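Lecture notes, unit on binding sites. The following record was shown on slide 14. It pairs a sequence with adenosine-5'-diphosphate.
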Amino acid sequence: MAEMAQTIVIKIGGHATNQLSPEFFAQLHAWHDAGKQILIVHGGGPQISSWSKKLGLTVKKINGIRVTDSETLKVTQAVLLGLVQPMLCQKVTASDLPALGLNATGQPIIYGDYLNQKLFGEVGQLTDINQDYIAAALKTHIGVMAPLAVNPTGHLLNVNGDVAAAGIARMLGAEEFILLTDVPGVMVKDHVLSSLSKQKATHMFKEKLITAGMQPKIQAAFDALQNGVEKVTITNKLQSAGTTLLKSQLVG
Ligand SMILES: Nc1ncnc2c1ncn2[C@@H]1O[C@H](COP(=O)(O)OP(=O)(O)O)[C@@H](O)[C@H]1O
Ligand SMILES: CC(=O)N[C@@H](CCC(=O)OP(=O)(O)O)C(=O)O
């Protein structure tokens, strides 16, 4: 793993991309001014679902992962690279920061392989990233990346944004990984958990207290922690503590 010091990876979910506050951009500026490298990995799940429905396609997810047939893959590509990514790049640029859209259509950036083609169709799991390309981009820009991977035969695969971002955070040796979503953290009823141990998460999974899109998020968080990332935050605002998951709290 080529360590890139001082890198912050922020995954922004599809709902959150539409709700970015002035405080969000102020925090990006503060990190940028402090010399941190910033990579945004964006989702767009609600937008993909909405466009799929408009086009008469069936929307199906299993454990928070979209079942992606070849038509849904086209919609995913069009929505992520045609709508969500340009909109985010424009917002970052409008806040006076240098944004660079990173996607799998030119130089491969994320490499993947089928997760389980029979079950999920055109869905990938991350196998590698183009370290040199990303490192060069982050030296000068805030990277804005879509979770689309390329497989060894050059075929595009849809990767869950949380899973992709966690793998990228791990491979970049990021110091911090933030999952910006539409809820203030991991919740039990109306209460936000300030921290979450592996044991507690296992219990919550068993009791079905973690469902839908929160499942890949928590799995992604632990994947990152188990592989070198020190701190993961799940929140809906960068200025709120949300739920913090620490490497030191992996056990217990
Ligand atoms: N225990 C939980 N705490 C918070 N959210 C949960 C929990 N279990 C399931 N969820 C659901 O997970 C959703 C967040 O995942 P998702 O919709 O995929 O967001 P994103 O687009 O940001 O990835 C929440 O809106 C909520 O409906
Ligand atoms: C395979 C898979 O599930 N891919 C996701 C990619 C986008 C995403 O993760 O968007 P959110 O972060 O908004 O959920 C999807 O198609 O919805």
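Take-home: Residues 13-16, 43, 45, 64, 162, 181-183, 186-187, 209-214, 217 surround adenosine-5'-diphosphate (ligand 1) (CB under 6 Å).
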